[in-house]
Write a structure and sequence with these properties.
- By secondary structure, the protein is α/β, with parallel strands linked by helices.
- The chain is about 30% helix and about 25% strand.
- The chain contains 12 helices and 21 strands.
- Strands 20-18-17-7-14-13-12-21 form an 8-stranded mixed β-sheet.
- Strand 12 and strand 13 (about 250-255) form a beta hairpin.
- Helix 1 crosses helix 2 and helix 3 packs parallel to helix 4 (about 95-105).
- It is globular.
């Protein structure tokens, strides 16, 4: 005897943004996405009420545009539309959103962590973001009795955690030792984005491949931060005031040390390591920052290098992101992905957003497997990485057994 199950009513919040667009296109065009969509009755909600409303690439119910101003608003939407799953691509208080879902019995997935209240203006800032991320550490997170709530299931946070845990096994195998005997001193998340447009932005415009406002809020923080011995630690300068040289794939990059939420969670799990995120942004964006070093985040004119804001065939370049594991005795191993615009065009997006959307699908595939609030390193990371690879292709490994130990302080090359 077979039993038919009804499609689960799944709400996608922020569907008109870059991650939402890429995710919807994967749901329509990719085998894993089609399988997830086939199990779902999809409802779409966005705060953007601009006309015309774009057509969804797959069957979906588009709700009237609405800005959610608090936990009560999200609960109301969930109850009104009998929502069973919420996928949040936007910025709202993450814990409040998870609590709203728990109160209504819905599962919840977010692509990032936002510690601010719904009514607070602007994106989360570095100190708030990293200090707030401590609230998701295992002994501090709220105990929610209803639903499964996966926080930070994108590229970083998200896929980088699966890369790190997989990389430990690969590193141990290459070094002919055990993961517990690698003698790691550092874990660096490294990224280079070379995306450029055929129609270059004006000299005073900040152009980036994801949310310009969120990017500026991170890289224009008054203090660059990393995690050392499990503690959030200042580097003594603004992120844009210094570059750090580090491996990213088969080359060295010179990136900014950028505050990020996953540094807190990974630093707690690996307290003997310093943990940092080193990000080389597109050259045009960095040049613009250099021309106007005193301009604050709110004063910038911005441009989103994301289709349809910029047609996909007018964008070129790659986004390479991964995790560098550094040992005192066994050199370095980097594991990560290089995604180019040719891959991204198939799904109507750019390389950066395709990477994030692959993490959304991988997390969605395991949503419900673990109760309460959790992060990617607490689910089946091998399965997660396999699902990401089904979208992005096989992760690349670069091993340098002769790399000498170089702590973050000695990787600073300018400023």
């Amino acid at each position: 005897m077979t039993y038919e199950t009804s499609p689960r009513r799944t709400l996608l919040i922020g569907w008109r943004g870059g991650v939402g667009t890429a995710t919807l296109n994967l749901l329509a065009e990719h085998p894993l996405g089609r399988r997830l969509a086939g199990d779902s009755h999809i409802l779409l909600l966005d705060a953007d009420d601009a006309e015309p409303v774009p057509a969804a690439p797959l069957p979906a119910e588009i709700l009237p545009a609405e800005t959610l101003l608090g936990r009560e608003d999200l609960e109301r939407v969930i109850r009104r539309h009998d929502i069973e799953r919420v996928l949040d691509f936007g910025a709202s208080n993450t814990i409040a959103s998870a609590e709203a879902c728990a109160a209504t019995g819905a599962d919840y997935l977010s692509t990032c962590y936002d510690p601010l209240h719904y009514r607070d203006a602007g994106p989360p800032t570095g100190p708030h973001l990293m200090q707030g991320a401590r609230d998701l550490l295992p002994k501090r997170r709220p105990s929610l009795s209803g639903g499964s709530h996966l926080v930070g299931s994108g590229m970083n946070p998200g896929t980088v955690s699966a890369l790190l845990l997989t990389g430990l096994d690969q590193f141990a195998d290459r070094a002919r030792t055990s993961p517990d005997d690698l003698d790691l001193y550092a874990i660096f998340i490294t990224e280079i984005d070379t995306t450029a447009s055929d129609d270059p932005p004006a000299d005073d415009v900040f152009a980036i491949t994801w949310s310009p406002q969120h990017c500026l809020s991170e890289i224009l923080e008054p203090e660059a931060l990393y995690v050392s011995r499990g503690d959030i630690t200042p580097l003594g300068h603004r992120p844009t005031a210094a570059h750090y040289r580090v491996r990213c794939g088969d080359e060295a990059i010179e990136g900014f040390a950028v505050p990020h939420e996953e540094l807190v969670w990974l630093g707690h799990r690996f307290p003997s390591c310093e943990v940092a995120y080193l990000y080389q942004i597109p050259r045009a964006a960095e040049a613009a920052l250099g021309r106007y070093p005193d301009r604050d985040a709110e004063s910038w004119k911005t441009r989103r290098l994301i289709p349809p804001s910029v047609p996909a065939d007018e964008l070129a370049g790659i986004d390479r992101v991964g995790v560098l594991l550094c040992s005192r005795r066994h050199g370095e191993l980097w594991l990560g992905f290089e995604t180019d615009m040719q891959q991204a065009r198939r799904f109507g997006t750019n390389a950066t957003e395709l990477q994030v959307a692959s993490g959304v699908l991988a997390g969605w595939a395991q949503l419900g497997a673990r109760a309460g609030i959790h992060v990617v390193e607490e689910i089946d990371y091998r399965r997660f990485l396999r699902d990401v690879e089904s979208v992005l292709g096989r992760a690349a490994t670069v091993y340098d057994p002769d790399a000498p130990p170089v702590p973050l302080s000695r990787r600073r090359v300018t400023g």
